[in-house]
Amino acid sequence: MSDFTSNHPPLRIAVLGSGAGSNFRILLNEVLNGRLNAKIVAVASDVSASGILEIARKHDLPHFYIQPGKFKATFEPYIESRLGHLLQEHDVELVVLAGFMRILKHEMLTTFKGRIINIHPSLLPKYPGLYAWKQALNSGDTVTGCSVHYVDAGVDTGKIIAQAEVDILSDDTSETLHARIQKAEHILLPLVVKQISEQRDEYLKSFKPSIK
Length: 212
Ligand code: GRF
Known about the structure:
Layout: E1 11-16, H1 22-32, E2 38-45, H2 51-58, E3 63-65, H3 77-89, E4 94-97, H4 107-111, E5 116-120, H5 132-138, E6 143-150, E7 160-167, H6 174-198, H7 200-203
Parallel strand pairs: 1-2, 1-4, 2-3, 4-5
Antiparallel strand pairs: 5-6, 6-7
Helix pairs in contact: 1-6
Bound molecules: 5-O-phosphono-beta-D-ribofuranosylamine.
């Protein structure tokens, strides 16, 4: 049951995450409620006990634990290559990084060039990297927010697709601010994915469908 009229088949999405999976849950709800013309064809995590894998399990979606290997913030090339092949096998069109704590460096960036997006909790280019909301709070800013951007080889440096602003309140703590940013993420990410699914030619230029 869907309430959209689209000439496209559902956009085939893989979601990668390392944590609770709240962004994934929202995306999945949009799909299940027929508001997003997409199909979650793979969920992958480098954390076996992550919430994101738990949600995928509950909904019987193809899900994969990627053994992280010996590095902390990246994958060894052979692991990233495996991940790339796995996603190709599932005919993934768009890769969504939703709280994925590893920097992609190798094959993923070539195989899925221009087709990987990330949600980040700041108004990039300000505060890339970890704990962006704390950086905003400690800098005395009055506004921060979240960004969805394409992923390139840098840390949160890819082209920005869309942003949402969040006011920083005088009594904000790191926790209250992060919670409000996450609320904004939960609105922004589905909006962007919806836009991509409706305007694939524009957003996924290098995409060559391999779906039969
Ligand atoms: C989000 O705040 C996102 O901006 C950051 O990691 C968090 C993931 O949260 N990259 P969740 O796993 O989607 O709940």
